[in-house]
Amino acid sequence: MPTRRKVNSVRVVLLVVVFILIIAGLGSIFVVKTGLSSTGNGDKEVVFTIENNESFDSILENLKKENLISNASVAKLYAKVSHNTNFVAGTFELDNGMSVKDILSTIQDSTKLKKDALVLKIPEGKWAKEIAAEISNLYDGKYSSEEILNQWNDISYIQTLTKDYSFLNVDDLNNSNYKVKLEGYLFPDTYFLEKDDSLDDITRVLLDRFDVMYKENKKAFDKSDLSIHQIISLASVVQFEASKPGDMAKIAGIFYNRLDQGMKLQSSVTVCYALYDDFNDPKDCETNPEVDSPYNTYLHEGLPIGPILNPGDEAINAVLNPEKTDYLFFAADIYNKVDGKVHYTKTYEEHLEECEKLGLNL
């Protein structure tokens, strides 16, 4: 027969277990309730796009990134239980005052699609003048390419932007030799613009996206020995040089090796940008290393004076996290449009041999 002390001990243990279960249950209820509630009071509007064939998990993660939902797992569980996993590809106007139920209901309803959005697609590696031309076409000539480029070259305007964008530095950008002062900061992505957007509105949409990337990588930017402008300049060269993302970190590492050893970068893609309006074919870059330009890294030591295109996430991350190797040279098979393989070498002699095999004239 158990003693009274043992019985009391068992009761205490049971009470503790029950208490823990209650607390856990309340905690779960709190997490679920919070996860299904709105993340704000509706003061933040977001133009949210669902791509064709995009997965439901991807949609939920993007909603989380936009801070429209607080917990993707809770939202996914609710969607499955309530049979709300269907959705419509397209663009919607959402805000942070909407609950998970409201958001899921909206993205299932084709009548809620945003009808008048203008879609601007900027692939990685585009020049500012190409982006300006695309914007001009998108707005049916409301803004000319020349007008857009003039704004992106207006240092007084850029000075107003620096108040809102910490990654922009007037001292870096106030250079009369630049083709386009905002080159490098017009971040590649798909944008949904309004018909009545001003040039300032459009520019800020692109810079807002750059700001997202910058804040995500702020620690790496701060840790680098290069300035933000130098990082973007080098990333633009890496973006242009690498036909495949898998080569970017290694190519970035080679450029760091060359800089560390006091060698010129001698990147032919900087010649492409130096040629600018006279650039028609990649072969032009290989055969004009003497073109007189501060962008030309065959003539000038160090980095080009500024970015030579608008790099994307992968190229920027490659520069922030380069692959360490002993290589000092590389040659891309620019004549092989299918493969475009990059060949890496440690010595100039080996590099010349590879170039000869590839039919490249140095």
UniProtKB/TrEMBL annotation:
Principal localisation: membrane
Reaction it catalyzes: a peptidoglycan chain = a peptidoglycan chain with N-acetyl-1,6-anhydromuramyl-[peptide] at the reducing end + a peptidoglycan chain with N-acetylglucosamine at the non-reducing end
Entry EC number(s): 4.2.2.29
UniProt keyword list: Cell membrane, Cell wall biogenesis/degradation, Lyase, Membrane, Transmembrane, Transmembrane helix
Any Gene Ontology biological process: cell wall organization
Known function: Functions as a peptidoglycan terminase that cleaves nascent peptidoglycan strands endolytically to terminate their elongation.
Name of the protein in question: Endolytic murein transglycosylase
